[in-house]
Amino acid sequence: MLKIKLHWQILIAIVLATSLGLVLDKDASIFSVSVAEIFQFIGTLFLNALKMIIVPLILASIICGMASLGTGDNLGRLGGKTLVFYMASSLFSILVGLLFVNLIEPGIIDGQPAGDRLNLSSAEQVSSQLERVEGRGTGDIAGVFLRMVPTNIVKAAADGQMLGLIFFGLLFGYYMMRIEGEHKESLINMWRAVQDTMMLITLFVMRFAPLGVFGLVAHTVLHTGFDAFQPLLIFFFTVLAALAFHVLVNLTLVLRFVAKVNPLDHYKAMAPAMLTAFSTASSSGTLPVTMECVEKRAGVSNSTSSFVLPLGATVNMDGTALYECVAAMFIAQAYGLDLSFTTQFTIVLVALLTSIGVAGIPAASLVAITVILGTIGLPLEGIGMLLVTDRVLDMLRTAVNVFSDSCCAVLVAKTEGEEGVLERVPSS
User: Fold this and answer.
1) How far from the centroid of its chain's Cα atoms is residue 357's Cα?
2) CA neighbor of 322 nearest in space, from 406, 242, 232
3) What gap in Å lies between CA 107 and CA 125, rounded to an integer?
4) 3-state class of 419 per DSSP?
5) Cα(303)–Cα(293) distance, rounded to whole angstroms?
6) Are 347 and 329 within 8 A, CB to CB?
7) Which of 91, 109, 137, 166 minimizes the C-alpha distance to 318?
């Protein structure tokens, strides 16, 4: 089983869990222990492992992400253009996701919240937690920014106030690059070592994802049958429609009217990279192909692509940020919450910030969604259901991430006055 690729293991786990959930009686037991409790234990153990890695992983990733920006020339004209595009494109992708999830409302089925179908805890069981989420008004926006500057960063991390932790990580990474001498290199090496270690721990936890998915899906199907799959299918197509809109409308308009190039030529030039991104679901793994397409097929210089694209693989994740927003809103809708402007603003802000730090790591979206739900005060139990559709959506959003990076490279090259960009695109 371990020789099979992880996504196939997860798919097999989903099929087995669905089959067992339909066949077994929800009151069945093994050695006087309820089967439902066994499934719930397995799923909860996996979710706890995900929670365990959040704080060190987020902090190390964001600090290293800021360190990758460098100092001096890298933050000059070229860096400024790149960062403005990446922040703007990520923000627009999140807003598109927010628009689609509010219009389609995948967490509402036949006018009722889908929480029962997804076997989420009842509103009564988590009433105090949900009241804190739903009770926020527009006037609480100031509180969002106050939470960004906690009085005690250790206590904030322990209490799950991730907004403060993210802000601290951004500040630490920025000023770490501005100290002189050997301490700077020591800090960089230390945080990169922490990040590498946390990535290995994340990979270790994700090796148990098939078991976690099995427990979560089996527990849900045992109680709800196939009812859980209708909201998940609608959620899948909501994300798909939002990703398509961002690529075919937002980024196409940028190429046509800002970069002033033919969008169809750029689609042709980037086809190999997007197919590679779709098949591997890894922006970092696709980077060599992306650079080759941008340089040899789109005509962007190496000096531009070698700065813009590696940075984009670290901090620019349009598809991931969009997915995080839709997933958080989907879970909130499933609980029957009418989210205020403040809470939706918080989701947009945290999705934007987490897309900077956790973009290049395995299972980035799961960690980021956990951060968002914790920040706005929602239970984390809905995350397990997202794994049912996560593999295909991961492939799709990775292709969007890579395409957005390439659009930035073309835009920066055109504004830098480079000649021959997208003038001779190979036919294949």
Assistant:
1) 10
2) 242
3) 19
4) coil
5) 14
6) yes
7) 91
State the average pLDDT for the chain.
Answer: 81
Neighbours of 62 (CB within 10 A): 27
Closest listed residue to residue 64, CA positions, set 361, 426, 341: 361
339, 329 contact by CB (below 8 A): yes
- DSSP, collapsed to helix, strand or coil, labels residue 111 as coil
The pLDDT tens digits of the residues spanning 153-168 come to 888 877 767 778 878 8
Q: How far apart are CA 152 and CA 156, in angstroms?
A: 6
Rg (CA), the chain: 22
DSSP state of 120: P
Query: Domain locations in the chain?
Result: 6-415
Distance CA 145, CA 142 (A): 5
Q: Hey, what are 220's tokens?
A: 């849900």
Angle at the Cα of 168 from the Cα atoms of 166 and 174, rounded to 5 degrees: 105
Tokens of 415: 């504004």
Which residue in the block uniquely carries the two structure tokens 């994340």?
202
Cβ–Cβ under 8 Å, residues 79 and 69: yes
Letter string b/e over residues 77-111, b meaning 16 or more CB atoms within 10 A of that residue's CB: ebbebbbebbeebbbbbbbbbbebbeebbbbbbee
3-state secondary structure of 33: strand
SS3 labels along 320-364? HHHHHHHHHHHHHHHCCCCCCHHHHHHHHHHHHHHHHHCCCCCCH
The DSSP symbol for 424 reads S
Strand partners, 113: 108
Report which of 298, 262, 217 is spatially closest to residue 42, judged by C-alpha positions: 217
Number of C-alpha atoms within 13 angstroms, CB side, residue 394?
A: 20
Alpha helices in 207-357 (DSSP H): 209-224, 229-245, 252-253, 263-280, 283-292, 302-315, 318-334, 341-357
Whole-model pTM: value is 0.77
How high is the pLDDT of residue 122? 56
Q: Does domain 6-415 have CATH number 1.10.3860?
A: yes
3-class SS of residue 126: coil
| C-alpha–C-alpha distance, residues 103 and 97, integer Å | 10
pLDDT at 151 over 50: yes
Which H or E element spans position 29?
strand 29-30
Which among 48, 5, 42 is positioned nearest to 20, based on CA atoms? 42
